[in-house]
Structures are given as structure tokens and as C-alpha cells.
Amino acid sequence: MSISNDQAQAYWRENLRIIMTHLAIWFVVSYGAAILFVEQLNEIPFFGFPLGFWFGQQGSIFVFVILIWTYVFSMNKLDEKYDVHE
Amino acid sequence: MSLDVLTFLFVGGSFALYIGIAIWARAGSTKEFYVAGGGVPPIANGMATAADWMSAASFISLAGLVSFVGRDGSAYLMGWTGGYVLLALTLAPYLRKFGKFTVPDFIGDRYYSQTARVIAVVCTIVISFTYVAGQMRGVGIVFSRYLHVDIDTGVYIGMTIVFFYAVLGGMKGITYTQVAQYVVLILAFTVPAFFLSAQVTGHILPQIGLGATLDSGMSVLATLDQLSVDLGFNQYTSGKKSTIDLFFLTVALMCGTAGLPHVIVRFFTVPRVKDARLSAGYALIFIALLYTAVPGVAGFGRVNLIQTINGADGTGTAYSEMPDWFKQWENTGLLGWADRNGDGKVQYASGAAFTAKKGKPIFSDERGEHGQRMTTNPTPGAEFDAAKQPFANEVYVDRDIMVLANPDIAQLPNWVIALVAAGAVAAALSTAAGLLLVISTAISHDLMKKTINPNINDKQELMFARLAAIVAIVIAGYFGINPPGFVAQVVALAFGLACASVFPAIIMGIFWTRHNSQGAIAGMLVGLVTTMAYMYYFAFGGGSPDEYFMGISPGGFGTVGAILHVVVGYVVSSMTPPPPQEIQDVVADLRIPRGAGEAHDH
Hints:
heterodimer, A: mainly alpha, two-stranded antiparallel sheet, 3 helices, 2 strands, B: mainly alpha, Hydantoin permease, 2 domains, two-stranded antiparallel ribbon, 6 strands
């Protein structure tokens, strides 16, 4: 390891924060919108879909793709910030 | 050109391509065999991962499933894509940094225990074999329908092809073949989806078409809801499963996806940690191209199916006037009709048309007065609840035929149908090859080299890997020819085990430095045993659905197993000594991307 222990810990904490924010959104669009609150959201029409149904069958998947990519970019930035990139 | 000639051209042409690639990308060392030399570019790895992942289940079964269960299908759509988010954020980069070949490698080394390694090997082999069985059946279905050979011959052909590139090329051959297979399968899925969507709604994209309004002035989904309710089914857009069951099922599918050894191993093949994240990003884009088209294909297929069978006036169509596809699928045994009310018309509604075997027909060798195949188990009488539906159901349609039959039902051009056949075979073969590699690696590397005889050299290990691949192909072929009658339960088992045993063990290994071997072993065993016991009890032990724990069906029980794994693992770990300092250093090191180097052996 080329970086100090403190630096490594700070890097890990920021890493965890990025993971948790992404997973929070991941949870809301799938478990939240498409399972727990699906009935309520289904009352809202969305381009011909009931909204909850749309999240379950289309919307959540689009959000998943975006989430992985924003994660990739945030992590690349974080790696450079702490000079641990390859 | 006739459909037969076109199908031979498409399927034969794709086979020639795969074999060509296999010869070009032969593996010379164990490293090339296990992880393709560790130098696969992320975009190619993304495509290979997508092909590896999208099996006969995704290609053939998923749209059929969604088509029949409507909203409850969301669990599979979200589970099999959302798992990649978990994988990309919590596993892939760290496992790449760890830099070994296999999942048992990680578990055995991280928990400094041969016992843990062997448990991981057992899980890997069980999970992969259950999966392979389904792939070979998929190949069999396609061959029997389109090449007019019997299912057995189809399976032999599939085995020969997989033998070529899995045994010769190892991971290197498989990876580059999968790139080609991805292209074939995604075209084969989306082209008919565009046709269907344009035909039914006027929008070419099924993602938009499913929300469109039809000529009748009603939206597609409202039409589906109406048709479903009129025939006594549940509303298409609302579910039958309870919220808690759907929740647990989705968790089990997501964590199971992230814990499947043949998916995880793909992230060992890229050069850097950064590339592992990037590969996951590409993989999910490539997967989403198919998955977001699935609900459209399912919905349009359902509308077409109901309207074709019940006719324009909704009273049924005379058997003599049914289109060819109906009779051809009847010949494969995946569709059956019993004229329960004796009017000569085929009618489709809610309810089982056949008794026993979960409503599946048992065919006799005779033909009936209309030329239909006779069955020995039609549901007697033609009673139905007149308040709910206009007639009794007379048809059995296997869910697995929906995607394959869709182009027929919609009367698409022959080349589209031939393309679908090639795509279904590509989907089944690419996944089968990836799984066979994982099985052979688990045996040659994790069992032979790491557990039984560490003294074998690279060449001998490679020989064991190839031998194991051959044995695995033969066993997989056996399951393809004699498919177990409980395929659905077996696939649920694969995800349940991955969710309850593999996934938590890896996550805790990365995110909790203090986790030790005692805790990990206890956790894995608890997850494994409870999940297997629960599934066994409800599949074979005579358990009935009203005995479900908190209303959770066996498919979702992997989540409960995972929770038990974490709790037991935590408690046992806390009561026993922490892991040695060098292990704690390894965990600290795998959290830092720099210095990943190549996937190495020791």
C-alpha cells in the first residue's frame, strides 16, 4: 500500500458513502416504488402505464443502468483524489 | 426460402462462427483457461457477461412468465437486473483486486480455512449444475420445434458444440464466443420485438409501445386488464402475490444474481479494478436492452395469443381453422387442447384444462375427430363460473413457448422466426458454456489443486480442467435428455443457495474485517441448510402454501436464509478469536484499487 493508514480509512469512508447513496436510490425505485408503494403509485398514469407497474417493469431497470455509471464515474474521481487509481 | 432452409442457414451459420472463434482462441495455460489471461477489454467483457447471464431462462422463459403472471413478473425483471447494481458496488471491484480465479478461492483464502473452501465448492457445483439442466432443455425445445429432430438429437448437437469451445478454449474461447453470441441473441430478441410492437401499436420501440393506445381507444395495458378479467384471470397490472412474498422473492433474486459463481468469475478476467466496475456498467446496458423489451413482448404476445385462440368475436376458434403454429406446438407436446364442451372450437380462459401434472396434458397416440392430439387427462365436464368467464378453459399453453411462438402468432416473416431460433440456441449455449467452465474450474482448481493434491503442475491441472468439463457436459446432457420434473424448484434452489450462502459470505468478508472462519463457516452452513430444508419440504415433503413462513414462498426463502447467515455469522464470529493479522491486512489491501496486477495463482 502506497498511502498512509489515515488516508486509506478516509478513502474507505467516502467509498462507503458513495455506495450507500447509490443503494438508497436503488432501494427506492425497486422495493419502494414497485413493491411497497405500488398500489398508491398505480393510481398515477404515466405514458399509458400505471406508475408503480412502470417502475416494476421498466423504470427501475433504467435507473439501475444510470446508477452503475454514476458509481463508475464517482469512484474514478475518488480514486484520483486519494491517488489510488491504477 | 422456406422456414426450414432459413433456420438451417441461421443456426448452422452461427455454429460455424462459434467454432471458428473457438479454434482462433484456444487456451494454452491454466490462466488462459480460467480467466482468459486476465486481459479482456471491459466492453467485450460486458457483452460476454451479458451473454453468459442471459440464458434460455431470460431469452425463452422470462417473457412467457411475465406474459402469464403480469405484474408479479416484476420480481424477476428487477431481480435479474438489480442484482448487477449490488454486484458492481459491493463485490466486483474488490474481488478483482483480490485477484484469484474463483469464488471458492476467495472464500477459502479470506477465511483461511479448507472447510470454508470445500463448502464454497459444493455450493458452486450445485448451483451451476441446476442451472445447466435448464439450458440443455432450452436447446432441446428449439431443435425439436425448428429442426424437426427429436429433443435428444438436439441435445447431442448442443453438447458437441459446447464441447468444442468450452473444452478447447476455456475462458478465453468462451469469452470471445460469447461476444458473438450476445450479438446474435440481442438481434434475435429485439428484431421480433420491434415488429410486434409496430404491428400492435404503431410504435417501433416495445418500451414505448406497451404504453400506447390501440385503435379501440384503450391503452394496451387497459386492454390486457380487460381481456384478463373477462376470461377470469387476475388483472394484468395488479399482482396475485402478497407484498411481503414479492419483496422477499425480489431480494433473493437480486442477492442470488450477485452471488452466482459464473457471473462473479467474469470480473476476474479484466486487467484492472477500474475495468471491473466498467464491465458491470457495460454488462447492465447490454442486459437492459433485452430486459426492457421483455414486458412489451410479454404484453403484445398475451393480447395476440388470447385474440388468436378466442377469435375476433371472443367465442373461440374452430380447431380446423387454427393456424399452423398451434398444431406444430401441439406436436412438441408443449400445447394441448381438449374439447371439453364438444363444440369443436378452441377456447382459452382461466382454470386448468387438464388434471394432475399441474394442468399439463398427457398425450395418447391417437388423433381426435378434428385431427387434434388426444389426451388422457382432460378435466371432466365443462363447468365454469359464469359470473367470471364466458366458457371453461380447454387449452394448456406452456409458458416457455411464448417467445418462440410469438413471431408465428403475429405472422412475422420467416427470416425473423429463423433468427429467433438461432438466438435461443445462442442464449442457451453461451450460458451453458460459462457454467461448465465454472464447474470444471471448481473441480480442477479448487478441489484438485487447492485441496487434494497441491503438487500437480500447470499442465496436469489443465488436463483435469478439460476432463472435468467433459464429465460436466455429459452430466448436463443427461439432464437435458431426462429433464427432472422439478426444473422450476431447482432454479429457485440455485438462486436461494447463492443468496443464502455465497453472497453474504463474500460481502461480510469484504466489509467486515473482523469476520473469522468460525463465523463464516457457521453462517454458510446455516444459510445452506435452512434454505435447502425449506425448499425440500415444500417441493417434496408435502408442505402446502398455507404453511409458508410469514407467507414467504420457497423462491423467496433464500432471503430468510441470508438473514440467518448474517446473524449467526456475526454472533459466532464475535464469540471466537479475530482472524490473524495477515488476513486483516489482506482485507485492508483489497479495499484499495491500486496494485491489482494480474489474476494470479499464489
